Amino acid sequence: xxxxxxxxxxxxxxxxxxxxxxxxxxxxxxxxxxxxxxxxxxxxxxxxxxxxxxxxxxxxxxxxxxxxxxxxxxxxxxxxxxxxxxxxxxxxxxxxxxxxxxxxxxxxxxxxxxxxxxxxxxxxxxxxxxxxxxxxxxxxxxxxxxxxxxxxxxxxxxxxxxxxxxxxxxxxxxxxxxxxxxxxxxxxxxxxxxxxxxxxxxxxxxxxxxx
Amino acid sequence: xxxxxxxxxxxxxxxxxxxxxxxxxxxxxxxxxxxxxxxxxxxxxxxxxxxxxxxxxxxxxxxxxxxxxxxxxxxxxxxxxxxxxxxxxxxxxxxxxxxxxxxxxxxxxxxxxxxxxxxxxxxxxxxxxxxxxxxxxxxxxxxxxxxxxxxxxxxxxxxxxxxxxxxxxxxxxxxxxxxxxxxxxxxxxxxxxxxxxxxxxxxxxxxxxxxxxxxxxxxxxxxxxxxxxxxxxxxxxxxxxxxxxxxxxxxxxxxxxxxxxxxxxxxxxxxxxxxxxxxxxxxxxxxxxxxxxxxxxxxxxxxxxxxxxxxxxxxxxxxxxxxxxxxxxxxxxxxxxxxxxxxxxxxxxxxxxxxxxxxxxxxxxxxxxxxxxxxxxxxxxxxxxxxxxxxxxxxxxxxxxxxxxxxxxxxxxxxxxxxxxxxxxxxxxxxxxxxxxxxxxxxxxxxxxxxxxxxxxxxxxxxxxxxxxxxxxxxxxxxxxxxxxxxxxxxx
Lengths: 211, 492
Ligand code: B12
Description:
- The structure holds two protein chains of two kinds.
- Helices cover about 55% and strands about 10% of the residues of chain A.
- By secondary structure, chain A is α/β, with parallel strands linked by helices.
- The relative contact order of chain A is 0.12.
- Chain B is α/β, with parallel strands linked by helices.
- Chain B contains 18 helices and 19 strands.
- Chain B has helices at about 25-40, 50-60, 70-80, 130-140, 160-170, 185-200, 200-205, 225-235, 255-275, 305-320, 340-355, 375-390, 395-400, 400-410, 420-425, 440-445, 450-465, 470-490, and strands at about 45-50, 60-65, 65-70, 85-90, 95-100, 105, 115, 125, 175-180, 210-215, 220-225, 240, 245-250, 285, 290, 325, 360, 365, 370.
- In chain B, the strands form five sheets. In chain B, strands 6-17-16-14-12-10-9 form a seven-stranded parallel sheet. Chain B has a four-stranded mixed sheet with strand order 2-3-1-11. Chain B has a four-stranded mixed sheet with strand order 8-7-19-18.
- In chain B, helix 4 (about 130-140) runs parallel beside helix 5.
- Classes of the chains: A alpha/beta, B alpha/beta.
- The interface of A and B includes residues 56, 60, 104, 108 and 199 of A.
- The complex binds cobalamin.
- Cobalamin sits at the interface of chains A and B.
């Protein structure tokens, strides 16, 4: 047990990348268990960030600075742990649906999920059902997230769900959707497992669904 | 004999015929333009259209995969080659919108995902009948100078939502139309329908009553969908509004100047494409420019920065002598409330003072997600006030009225003066703003602004009769819609 963790958490909260790097390095040098560094130093800091963002005390750019700092720490610790031991809240495949080029919201969700500890596979924009299917087969995520900003493209979300059913994969993965024209009603209508109106609540939603 | 002021000897007399707002000096505009030229020459833009890449290459750009770098001289040529004035007619062929200098025209906005029903208050998906309603309200409101669809209609073939909305507008207003379409096929349908109304394609080109509308993906990225439309419009010699949605902190740096640089650069890409296809084709730059709210992550339509940036962009457009498509009359509020009123009023005023030629989104609620005809009706009133402010203060002998002041003398009143008779109608008088005394207001039902706005909107929808088009025109328009339906059915 080292005394770096409190300061490590604080440095994550204030988004000080270099400080996080050097503290992580010191903790490693002091012989700390790498998994402890993650669970007791890095993640607690990020949890505070998540909570402060939700309550309006922190803004998106600050959250992303913290996420960057967290990632820098992770990169140092990761090589020291077996892949299966790396703490991850879960895997999420995310993309913008076919015909839709809006990706700012989707990218924000993806960054927020990463900062909440998820491993995110981003399949980009204009992603058809096959592309999602492919990613599900390849990465076996717990959740897939689809984003649509157009009322015309949101209808394509259903196609992905149908394809997953046809392939017998629907039970293996939770489907969440979002984007400006999406509502809870629409999610229910097409048989998605969840909807979140913004990036902050997307992380909560994943947590709920994977619990 | 009284001595009038104009008989004095006078030199170097300057007049502010209107109030003055110039967000940026010419030197600042030049600085921003140079920034955009540097970005396009150094960083370049990503272009996702084979046709556009070919055009840029032939035109002398450096093309490296999808990245196109633009030599500054080419852009400067395109700025000079584009017309500094575009005249848009109404659907009867009367030249009505003079997009030149600092003439200002207001209108609503396009393609919202929801609309607020002015009868039930419900927020729901737009239907074709909503665009019919919108067109009627647009037609009736004197300060709304052109039509946009006020929502993507959802109760028709999805890929023809744009074509149906255009039909609904043609059938219910004779004002000019700015319209977005999904793709080139739909753009063709739209031009064909417009040609029917104008009396042939050539008549439409000579006297356009439509502007096509396309959006690029900032920062510095142009989808095939976006740039191909600019090319299509130039080929067909129909003016286009080419507008990135640039928001500070999201798709542009968090500083205002850099956000302007990105917006200008992205507009210039569309400009160059159009001018290379047809020298002198009509181009209007845009458009939507604001900040990202760093808590909710919305692109704010009510931010002070929306006005600040829009006025800045307008100054640069004016410096380049390119007509400008700006934004105002919109809000982040979800309901008809005080926030809506104040955000709409501020942005309408600043956009008006900035001298932007087309000011759109006078119907946008909820950061652009929802349209409201009630907001449009209220904006019409606000625009009336702003236009009065834009009239400025006339300072001449008649308006100085020194003789009248001398005649009435200290302690008198002016109510019964001929001079008052002659001029009091210059006061702006309102239809919706309530200035009754308390008892009068109470006698009329103690209504709030929101209630009066709702009543007026409903009254227009129920009773306004737009001038109808000849039957054969309506039939030909319907035939084009049917043709489009058949084409889309075949694609399935
Ligand atoms: C920026 C923008 C663009 C940019 C996109 C740039 C880019 N790289 O993404 C450009 C200019 C390219 C563009 C183009 C078009 N756009 Co646009 N665009 C917008 C705008 C102004 C903001 C969108 C945005 O980025 N918001 C900020 C982000 C952070 O918010 P967000 O996307 O909502 O995401 C948040 C949540 O929704 C949620 N979320 C998002 N995805 C997901 C996914 C999951 C799984 C979860 C859980 C949550 C979640 O979390 C996010 C973060 O908090 C909106 C207006 C609006 N009010 O939304 C119009 C808007 C979406 N666009 C619209 C339209 C119509 C278009 C165009 C068709 C052209 C046009 N007429 O405007 C083209 C279409 C191009 C295409 N094929 O996709 C309409 C859609 C209307 C409709 N009926 O469908 C809107 C609503 C504007 C309007 N009223 O007309 N657009």
